[in-house]
C-alpha cells in the first residue's frame, strides 16, 4: 500500500513537470527549428492535458470507462517516464487529475 502511495506521489510530481517541461524554453523562440521543436513539445503536453476528462471518467467508473485520449496519454507517459511504466492505469489516471 505504501509503495502505491509513493508511486502516485512521484507521478503527481512528474506529470506536471512533464506537461510544462518545455514551457519556458519555447517562449520567445524565433527560428523555424526552435518553433518546430516547441510545437511538438506542446503537442505532447496537449495529449496529457486533453486526457483529463477521460481520466475522470476512468477513475469515477473504477476503470470501466476507457477513453481514447486517456489511452494515448497512458501510452505516452509510459514511453517517456520510467516510473510510469510500473504504475497502474488507475494510478496514472489519478496523477493526471491531480495536476
TrEMBL record:
Coiled-coil residue spans: none
InterPro entries: CHP02448
Signal peptide bounds: 1-19
Renumbered residue ranges of the record's region Disordered: 22-46
Biased composition (Low complexity): 22-41
Keywords: Signal
Name of the protein in question: DUF2388 domain-containing protein
The species this protein was found in: Pseudoxanthomonas helianthi
